[in-house]
Amino acid sequence: MRVHFVVPADDRPSGGNVYDRRATEGLAALGFDVRATALAGTWPQPDDDARDRLADVLAAVPDGGAVLLDGLVACGVPEIIGSHADRLRTAVLVHLPLADETGLDPATAARLDTAERATLRAADLVIATSPQAAQRLARHHGLRRVRTATPGTEPAALAPGTDGVSRLLCVGSLTPRKGHDLLVEALAGLPLTCDFVGPARDPARVRRLIEHPAGIRWRGPLAGAELADAYASADLLVQPSLAETYGMAVTEALARGIPVIASAVPDALGDGGLLLPPGNTAALADALRRWSDDPDFRSRLRESALRRRDQLPTWESTARQLAAALTSLET
Question: C-alpha 292: how far from its chain's center?
Fold first, then answer.
């Protein structure tokens, strides 16, 4: 089966970019003819040139062709997706609902949510990256065909950590949705340090975070061996996100047996760590204080991480889920 896969052109490390790359490789390994196209643009709010490039890519697909579109590219431009809905078989892969990105003004969030609804209703199939996200998309947008393809996890060696307590790690782009501000506040007064790993678009915000007296160090976006080293030296992963569809940094940590305290990631975390309510700084501060002071609490979190480590999905299973979803477009 030939699939035209349209993704955003973005070389910054992110869960969505990793997923798209592994999806391309996994589908090809299963015998799919994957024609991937990366489109530059300020997605999901592109300029006219980016919109024209997307329209040209879709126009070049023969009638009846199967197209898988990253939701970041597709969901903000329903008029382009809808104009090809009758002649193409389209599936939209939603990494994060557009209105879930924090920091948007209410009018922009509402406009993006409306555009996303129109796009997903025009598509033949919607693919979400977690069961929770699939249920929410179906309910929120009134969708009937929503499938799930959960991100996989690469097997990894157990992380040695440092002293077993003091080195914390938070992996994710430095955007308000990831909750770094909450983490900085929760760490105040505790004998813990934390590395922030991820890209940042707002240098002033980064300066405010790392100037806090809580021992914060921003290491920028890391990949490959550098990212592996950051995980290896971590005693605890803390992901205080306000909203996520899955949470791949959590499973990357669990694959290394690293204990996890997180919010908004129930599908990724499972029973592998402590799940907190999003946006609750007091609960986060209490959990970090327990981590710092209570050896039994630390031991229980480590045991939970090790149990979950043996249950994590693989990228091969992700590819099989995507293959089943895309094959259903032929029926």
Answer: 28
Residues 162-172 have a mean pLDDT of 96
Residue 165 to residue 291: CA distance in whole angstroms: 7
Contact assessment for residue 298 and residue 292, using Cβ atoms and an 8 Å cutoff? no
Which domains does the chain possess?
Answer: 2-152+314-330 (3.40.50.2000), 167-309 (3.40.50.2000)
Strand 167-171: give its sheet, edge to edge. 216-220, 193-197, 167-171, 236-239, 260-263, 274-276
Cβ proximity of 66 and 78 under 8 Å: no
Cβ neighbours around 135 below 10 Å, total: 13
Tokens (6 digits) for 217: 């160090």
Q: For residue 200, what pLDDT is reported?
A: 85
Are 56 and 91 in contact by the 8 Å Cβ rule? The answer is no
Cβ neighbours of residue 225 under 8 Å, at least 6 residues apart?
A: none
Res. 61 pLDDT band, cuts 50 70 90: very high
**pTM > 0.85:** yes
What was the pLDDT predicted at 213?
Answer: 62
Cα distance between residue 199 and residue 220, in whole Å: 5
Q: Which residues fall within 8 angstroms of residue 114, CB to CB, at 6 or more apart?
A: none
As a whole number of angstroms, the distance between CA 226 and CA 277 comes to: 31
Q: What is the C-alpha R_g of the chain?
A: 20
Amino acid present at 293 = D
How far apart CA 113 and CA 123 sit, in angstroms, is: 15
CB 238 within 8 A of CB 262: yes
Residues 6+ apart with CB under 8 A from 176: 102, 103, 242
Residues 6+ apart with CB under 8 A from 297: 290, 291
* Bond preceding residue 44 cis, omega within 30 of 0: yes
Cα(279)–Cα(37) distance, integer angstroms: 37
pLDDT band at 103 (very low <50, low <70, confident <90, very high): confident
